[in-house]
Design goal:
Layout (H helix, E strand, L loop, with lengths): L3 E4 L4 E4 L4 H14 L2 E4 L10 H14 L7 E7 L6 H9 L3 E6 L19 H10 L3 E3 L13 H16 L5 E3 L5 H9 L4 E5 L1 H5 L3 H4 L16 H11 L6 E3 L8 H4 L14 H11 L6 H12 L8 E10 L19 E10 L1
Parallel strand pairs: 2-3, 3-4, 4-5, 5-6, 6-7, 7-8, 8-9
Antiparallel strand pairs: 1-10, 10-11
The structure holds N-carbamoyl-L-aspartate and zinc ion (ZN).
Zinc ion (ZN) binds next to loops.
Length: 348
Protein backbone atom coordinates (compact mmCIF):
# COMPACT_ATOMS: atom_id res chain seq x y z
CA UNK A 1 0.00 0.00 0.00
CA UNK A 2 1.37 3.44 -0.96
CA UNK A 3 1.34 5.75 2.04
CA UNK A 4 2.68 8.89 0.47
CA UNK A 5 2.75 10.43 -2.98
CA UNK A 6 4.67 13.37 -4.47
CA UNK A 7 3.43 15.07 -7.65
CA UNK A 8 3.76 18.43 -9.40
CA UNK A 9 1.55 21.07 -7.79
CA UNK A 10 -2.06 20.88 -9.03
CA UNK A 11 -4.41 23.44 -10.60
CA UNK A 12 -8.16 23.86 -10.20
CA UNK A 13 -9.72 24.44 -13.61
CA UNK A 14 -13.19 25.40 -12.31
CA UNK A 15 -13.56 27.54 -9.19
CA UNK A 16 -16.03 29.99 -7.64
CA UNK A 17 -14.39 32.52 -5.30
CA UNK A 18 -17.25 35.03 -4.95
CA UNK A 19 -16.48 38.61 -3.88
CA UNK A 20 -16.34 40.79 -0.76
CA UNK A 21 -16.35 39.07 2.65
CA UNK A 22 -16.99 35.59 1.18
CA UNK A 23 -13.93 35.98 -1.07
CA UNK A 24 -11.89 36.82 2.04
CA UNK A 25 -13.18 33.68 3.76
CA UNK A 26 -12.52 31.23 0.95
CA UNK A 27 -9.60 32.35 -1.23
CA UNK A 28 -6.87 31.17 1.17
CA UNK A 29 -8.23 27.63 0.99
CA UNK A 30 -7.80 27.40 -2.77
CA UNK A 31 -4.41 29.13 -2.55
CA UNK A 32 -3.20 26.53 -0.04
CA UNK A 33 -4.25 23.72 -2.37
CA UNK A 34 -3.67 24.89 -5.93
CA UNK A 35 -1.14 26.94 -7.89
CA UNK A 36 -3.60 28.24 -10.47
CA UNK A 37 -7.35 28.27 -10.87
CA UNK A 38 -9.85 29.12 -13.59
CA UNK A 39 -12.11 31.56 -11.73
CA UNK A 40 -15.76 31.66 -12.72
CA UNK A 41 -17.45 35.01 -13.44
CA UNK A 42 -20.97 34.37 -12.06
CA UNK A 43 -20.89 37.31 -9.68
CA UNK A 44 -23.82 39.67 -9.13
CA UNK A 45 -23.70 41.43 -11.57
CA UNK A 46 -21.75 38.97 -13.74
CA UNK A 47 -18.29 39.87 -15.07
CA UNK A 48 -19.10 40.30 -18.76
CA UNK A 49 -16.26 42.69 -19.71
CA UNK A 50 -12.50 42.22 -19.55
CA UNK A 51 -12.03 45.27 -17.35
CA UNK A 52 -14.54 43.94 -14.80
CA UNK A 53 -12.64 40.65 -14.75
CA UNK A 54 -9.28 42.32 -14.29
CA UNK A 55 -10.65 44.47 -11.44
CA UNK A 56 -12.07 41.32 -9.84
CA UNK A 57 -8.70 39.61 -10.25
CA UNK A 58 -7.07 42.49 -8.34
CA UNK A 59 -9.54 42.02 -5.49
CA UNK A 60 -8.68 38.30 -5.42
CA UNK A 61 -4.95 39.05 -5.28
CA UNK A 62 -5.54 41.62 -2.51
CA UNK A 63 -7.43 39.03 -0.45
CA UNK A 64 -4.64 36.44 -0.65
CA UNK A 65 -2.23 35.70 2.19
CA UNK A 66 0.98 37.76 1.76
CA UNK A 67 3.29 34.96 0.72
CA UNK A 68 0.84 33.39 -1.73
CA UNK A 69 1.86 32.59 -5.31
CA UNK A 70 -1.72 31.71 -6.31
CA UNK A 71 -2.47 32.73 -9.88
CA UNK A 72 -6.16 33.28 -10.71
CA UNK A 73 -6.94 32.93 -14.41
CA UNK A 74 -10.26 34.50 -15.24
CA UNK A 75 -13.19 33.29 -17.34
CA UNK A 76 -15.37 35.88 -19.05
CA UNK A 77 -19.16 35.55 -18.70
CA UNK A 78 -20.69 34.95 -22.13
CA UNK A 79 -23.64 37.14 -23.05
CA UNK A 80 -25.09 37.81 -26.48
CA UNK A 81 -23.62 41.34 -26.18
CA UNK A 82 -20.01 40.20 -26.33
CA UNK A 83 -18.23 41.76 -29.32
CA UNK A 84 -15.10 40.81 -31.21
CA UNK A 85 -12.97 43.57 -29.68
CA UNK A 86 -13.67 42.20 -26.22
CA UNK A 87 -12.83 38.66 -27.32
CA UNK A 88 -9.61 39.79 -28.95
CA UNK A 89 -8.66 41.65 -25.76
CA UNK A 90 -9.46 38.62 -23.62
CA UNK A 91 -7.48 36.30 -25.88
CA UNK A 92 -4.39 38.50 -25.69
CA UNK A 93 -4.45 38.94 -21.91
CA UNK A 94 -2.60 36.19 -20.01
CA UNK A 95 -4.85 36.72 -16.97
CA UNK A 96 -7.96 35.81 -18.96
CA UNK A 97 -8.15 32.19 -20.06
CA UNK A 98 -11.59 31.41 -21.40
CA UNK A 99 -15.24 32.36 -21.88
CA UNK A 100 -17.93 30.64 -19.80
CA UNK A 101 -21.30 29.75 -21.27
CA UNK A 102 -24.19 29.54 -18.83
CA UNK A 103 -27.55 28.62 -20.32
CA UNK A 104 -29.91 31.25 -18.84
CA UNK A 105 -31.43 29.93 -15.63
CA UNK A 106 -29.31 26.76 -15.49
CA UNK A 107 -27.58 27.48 -12.19
CA UNK A 108 -26.53 30.05 -9.57
CA UNK A 109 -26.35 33.59 -11.02
CA UNK A 110 -26.97 32.50 -14.58
CA UNK A 111 -29.90 34.82 -15.35
CA UNK A 112 -27.71 36.90 -17.65
CA UNK A 113 -26.68 33.78 -19.55
CA UNK A 114 -27.70 32.55 -22.97
CA UNK A 115 -31.31 31.87 -23.94
CA UNK A 116 -30.91 31.04 -27.61
CA UNK A 117 -27.68 29.18 -28.29
CA UNK A 118 -27.93 29.72 -32.05
CA UNK A 119 -27.77 33.47 -31.43
CA UNK A 120 -24.23 33.26 -30.10
CA UNK A 121 -22.77 31.44 -33.12
CA UNK A 122 -21.09 34.64 -34.41
CA UNK A 123 -19.44 35.03 -31.00
CA UNK A 124 -18.22 31.44 -31.05
CA UNK A 125 -16.73 32.08 -34.47
CA UNK A 126 -14.73 35.02 -33.08
CA UNK A 127 -13.59 32.85 -30.18
CA UNK A 128 -12.46 30.17 -32.59
CA UNK A 129 -10.61 32.79 -34.65
CA UNK A 130 -8.86 34.25 -31.57
CA UNK A 131 -8.30 30.80 -30.04
CA UNK A 132 -10.13 31.55 -26.79
CA UNK A 133 -11.54 28.38 -25.18
CA UNK A 134 -15.26 27.93 -24.48
CA UNK A 135 -16.22 26.51 -21.08
CA UNK A 136 -19.70 25.07 -20.97
CA UNK A 137 -22.24 24.53 -18.23
CA UNK A 138 -23.81 21.65 -20.10
CA UNK A 139 -27.44 21.48 -19.03
CA UNK A 140 -30.65 22.39 -20.83
CA UNK A 141 -33.14 24.53 -18.96
CA UNK A 142 -36.22 23.24 -20.79
CA UNK A 143 -38.85 22.70 -18.07
CA UNK A 144 -40.05 19.60 -19.91
CA UNK A 145 -36.73 17.85 -19.32
CA UNK A 146 -36.21 15.95 -16.11
CA UNK A 147 -33.39 17.45 -14.04
CA UNK A 148 -31.45 14.16 -14.09
CA UNK A 149 -31.48 14.16 -17.93
CA UNK A 150 -30.51 17.77 -18.51
CA UNK A 151 -26.82 17.14 -19.17
CA UNK A 152 -27.49 14.29 -21.61
CA UNK A 153 -30.04 16.31 -23.58
CA UNK A 154 -27.71 19.31 -23.75
CA UNK A 155 -25.02 17.20 -25.41
CA UNK A 156 -27.28 16.14 -28.26
CA UNK A 157 -29.20 19.36 -28.73
CA UNK A 158 -26.46 21.94 -28.29
CA UNK A 159 -22.93 20.75 -27.66
CA UNK A 160 -22.57 18.36 -30.59
CA UNK A 161 -23.63 21.06 -33.09
CA UNK A 162 -21.23 23.58 -31.51
CA UNK A 163 -18.30 21.15 -31.61
CA UNK A 164 -19.13 20.17 -35.20
CA UNK A 165 -19.57 23.74 -36.44
CA UNK A 166 -16.49 25.31 -34.85
CA UNK A 167 -13.93 22.64 -35.50
CA UNK A 168 -10.98 24.63 -34.16
CA UNK A 169 -12.70 25.95 -31.03
CA UNK A 170 -11.34 24.44 -27.82
CA UNK A 171 -14.29 23.38 -25.66
CA UNK A 172 -14.47 22.15 -22.06
CA UNK A 173 -17.56 20.35 -20.83
CA UNK A 174 -17.49 21.50 -17.21
CA UNK A 175 -18.31 19.35 -14.19
CA UNK A 176 -19.31 16.20 -16.09
CA UNK A 177 -21.83 14.14 -14.14
CA UNK A 178 -22.99 11.37 -16.47
CA UNK A 179 -21.64 8.43 -18.45
CA UNK A 180 -23.04 10.24 -21.51
CA UNK A 181 -20.89 13.30 -20.79
CA UNK A 182 -17.83 11.07 -20.44
CA UNK A 183 -18.56 9.26 -23.71
CA UNK A 184 -19.14 12.60 -25.45
CA UNK A 185 -15.71 13.90 -24.48
CA UNK A 186 -13.96 10.59 -25.18
CA UNK A 187 -15.39 10.40 -28.68
CA UNK A 188 -15.18 14.08 -29.59
CA UNK A 189 -12.69 15.60 -32.03
CA UNK A 190 -9.41 16.87 -30.61
CA UNK A 191 -9.65 20.10 -28.64
CA UNK A 192 -12.55 18.91 -26.48
CA UNK A 193 -11.93 18.24 -22.78
CA UNK A 194 -13.87 17.87 -19.57
CA UNK A 195 -13.49 18.74 -15.90
CA UNK A 196 -14.52 16.48 -13.05
CA UNK A 197 -15.30 17.61 -9.51
CA UNK A 198 -14.22 15.77 -6.38
CA UNK A 199 -17.81 15.64 -5.12
CA UNK A 200 -19.20 14.00 -8.26
CA UNK A 201 -16.42 11.43 -8.00
CA UNK A 202 -17.26 10.72 -4.35
CA UNK A 203 -21.03 11.04 -4.08
CA UNK A 204 -24.12 9.73 -5.81
CA UNK A 205 -27.70 10.95 -5.46
CA UNK A 206 -28.36 8.70 -2.48
CA UNK A 207 -25.93 10.88 -0.54
CA UNK A 208 -28.30 13.78 -1.15
CA UNK A 209 -31.67 12.09 -0.64
CA UNK A 210 -31.43 9.06 1.66
CA UNK A 211 -32.00 9.43 5.38
CA UNK A 212 -33.26 13.01 5.08
CA UNK A 213 -32.47 15.68 2.52
CA UNK A 214 -28.82 16.76 2.66
CA UNK A 215 -28.62 20.38 1.50
CA UNK A 216 -24.82 20.44 1.60
CA UNK A 217 -24.81 17.72 -1.06
CA UNK A 218 -26.99 19.71 -3.42
CA UNK A 219 -25.23 21.17 -6.44
CA UNK A 220 -25.72 21.63 -10.15
CA UNK A 221 -25.50 19.60 -12.21
CA UNK A 222 -27.25 17.54 -9.55
CA UNK A 223 -25.63 14.32 -8.24
CA UNK A 224 -26.51 11.29 -10.37
CA UNK A 225 -26.93 7.54 -9.81
CA UNK A 226 -24.03 5.28 -8.88
CA UNK A 227 -23.45 3.89 -12.39
CA UNK A 228 -22.68 7.42 -13.60
CA UNK A 229 -20.29 8.01 -10.71
CA UNK A 230 -18.46 4.82 -11.70
CA UNK A 231 -18.10 6.14 -15.26
CA UNK A 232 -16.62 9.39 -13.93
CA UNK A 233 -14.10 7.50 -11.80
CA UNK A 234 -13.10 5.31 -14.74
CA UNK A 235 -12.52 8.40 -16.90
CA UNK A 236 -10.60 10.35 -14.24
CA UNK A 237 -8.30 7.43 -13.48
CA UNK A 238 -7.88 6.30 -17.11
CA UNK A 239 -4.93 8.57 -17.85
CA UNK A 240 -6.87 10.12 -20.76
CA UNK A 241 -5.51 13.70 -21.05
CA UNK A 242 -8.94 15.04 -22.00
CA UNK A 243 -10.04 14.82 -18.36
CA UNK A 244 -8.74 17.11 -15.63
CA UNK A 245 -9.63 18.47 -12.20
CA UNK A 246 -12.06 21.33 -11.74
CA UNK A 247 -13.47 21.42 -8.24
CA UNK A 248 -16.49 23.64 -8.92
CA UNK A 249 -16.05 24.56 -5.26
CA UNK A 250 -19.04 26.87 -4.80
CA UNK A 251 -19.40 28.45 -1.35
CA UNK A 252 -22.80 29.69 -0.21
CA UNK A 253 -23.67 31.06 3.23
CA UNK A 254 -24.82 28.27 5.54
CA UNK A 255 -28.16 30.03 6.00
CA UNK A 256 -28.82 29.89 2.25
CA UNK A 257 -27.95 26.21 2.01
CA UNK A 258 -30.01 25.15 5.04
CA UNK A 259 -33.19 26.77 3.79
CA UNK A 260 -36.64 25.92 2.42
CA UNK A 261 -35.19 26.72 -1.01
CA UNK A 262 -31.55 25.87 -0.62
CA UNK A 263 -29.08 27.05 -3.23
CA UNK A 264 -26.84 24.86 -5.34
CA UNK A 265 -23.12 24.49 -4.70
CA UNK A 266 -20.75 22.31 -2.69
CA UNK A 267 -17.78 23.82 -0.90
CA UNK A 268 -14.71 21.58 -1.31
CA UNK A 269 -11.84 24.07 -1.59
CA UNK A 270 -10.26 23.41 1.87
CA UNK A 271 -9.79 19.68 1.17
CA UNK A 272 -10.05 19.31 -2.59
CA UNK A 273 -6.63 17.79 -3.30
CA UNK A 274 -7.05 15.36 -0.40
CA UNK A 275 -10.45 14.29 -1.77
CA UNK A 276 -9.19 13.69 -5.31
CA UNK A 277 -6.29 11.69 -3.85
CA UNK A 278 -8.76 9.54 -1.94
CA UNK A 279 -10.70 8.84 -5.15
CA UNK A 280 -7.55 7.72 -6.99
CA UNK A 281 -6.38 5.69 -3.99
CA UNK A 282 -9.72 3.88 -3.74
CA UNK A 283 -9.44 3.06 -7.46
CA UNK A 284 -5.84 1.82 -7.06
CA UNK A 285 -4.76 4.52 -9.50
CA UNK A 286 -2.50 6.85 -7.51
CA UNK A 287 0.00 6.56 -10.38
CA UNK A 288 -2.48 8.51 -12.55
CA UNK A 289 -3.22 11.27 -10.02
CA UNK A 290 -0.51 13.63 -11.24
CA UNK A 291 -1.73 13.65 -14.83
CA UNK A 292 -5.30 14.41 -13.79
CA UNK A 293 -4.51 17.02 -11.11
CA UNK A 294 -1.40 18.71 -12.46
CA UNK A 295 -0.67 18.04 -16.14
CA UNK A 296 -3.73 17.51 -18.34
CA UNK A 297 -5.38 20.87 -17.65
CA UNK A 298 -2.19 22.88 -18.10
CA UNK A 299 -1.54 21.05 -21.37
CA UNK A 300 -5.09 21.70 -22.58
CA UNK A 301 -4.75 25.44 -21.86
CA UNK A 302 -1.24 25.42 -23.38
CA UNK A 303 0.28 26.70 -20.16
CA UNK A 304 3.50 25.46 -18.56
CA UNK A 305 3.16 22.73 -15.98
CA UNK A 306 3.81 24.02 -12.46
CA UNK A 307 7.31 23.86 -11.04
CA UNK A 308 7.88 22.46 -7.54
CA UNK A 309 6.08 19.56 -5.92
CA UNK A 310 3.42 18.63 -3.41
CA UNK A 311 3.54 15.62 -1.10
CA UNK A 312 0.50 13.93 0.38
CA UNK A 313 0.49 11.23 2.99
CA UNK A 314 -2.12 8.78 4.14
CA UNK A 315 -3.17 10.16 7.52
CA UNK A 316 -6.79 10.53 8.58
CA UNK A 317 -7.49 14.19 9.46
CA UNK A 318 -10.65 15.79 10.84
CA UNK A 319 -12.50 18.34 8.68
CA UNK A 320 -13.69 21.65 10.18
CA UNK A 321 -17.42 22.04 10.74
CA UNK A 322 -17.54 25.48 9.16
CA UNK A 323 -15.43 28.45 8.13
CA UNK A 324 -16.00 32.23 8.32
CA UNK A 325 -18.10 34.46 10.52
CA UNK A 326 -21.78 35.32 10.89
CA UNK A 327 -23.55 35.62 7.54
CA UNK A 328 -20.45 34.37 5.71
CA UNK A 329 -20.28 31.06 7.53
CA UNK A 330 -19.76 28.28 5.02
CA UNK A 331 -19.95 24.53 5.55
CA UNK A 332 -17.41 22.37 3.68
CA UNK A 333 -18.01 18.91 2.29
CA UNK A 334 -17.26 16.30 4.99
CA UNK A 335 -17.87 18.92 7.74
CA UNK A 336 -17.12 17.31 11.08
CA UNK A 337 -15.94 14.17 9.27
CA UNK A 338 -12.60 12.90 8.03
CA UNK A 339 -10.20 13.06 5.12
CA UNK A 340 -8.03 10.02 4.51
CA UNK A 341 -5.09 12.00 3.12
CA UNK A 342 -3.20 15.07 4.23
CA UNK A 343 -0.97 17.58 2.41
CA UNK A 344 2.44 17.22 4.03
CA UNK A 345 4.44 19.80 2.09
CA UNK A 346 4.35 21.91 -1.02
CA UNK A 347 7.02 23.87 -2.85
CA UNK A 348 6.67 26.30 -5.77
C1 LIG B 1 -22.29 27.06 -8.82
C2 LIG B 1 -22.35 28.33 -7.97
O1 LIG B 1 -22.86 28.29 -6.85
O2 LIG B 1 -21.84 29.36 -8.44
N1 LIG B 1 -23.18 26.09 -8.23
C3 LIG B 1 -23.12 24.75 -8.38
O3 LIG B 1 -23.99 24.06 -7.86
N2 LIG B 1 -22.15 24.18 -9.07
C4 LIG B 1 -22.62 27.36 -10.23
C5 LIG B 1 -22.30 26.26 -11.20
O4 LIG B 1 -21.13 25.98 -11.49
O5 LIG B 1 -23.24 25.62 -11.70
ZN1 LIG C 1 -19.28 26.10 -11.33
Amino acid sequence: MTDSITISPPDDWHLHLRDGPMLETVVGHSASQFTRAMVMPNLVPPATQCQQLLDYRQRILAALPDDSQFNPIMALYLTDQLDEAEISEAASNPHIGAVKLYPAGATTNSDAGIGDLQAIYPILEWMEKHDLPLLVHGEVTDPEIDIFDRETVFLERHLQPIVDTFTNLRVVLEHITTAHGIAFVEQARSGVGGTLTAHHLLLNRNHMLVGGIQPHHYCLPVLKRESHRQALIAAATSGNPRFFAGTDSAPHPKSEKESACGCAGIYTAPIAVELYTEVFDNANSLNRLEGFLSHHGADFYRLPRNPGEITLQRNPCPVEREFGQDEQRVVPLRAGGWCQWQILSRTN
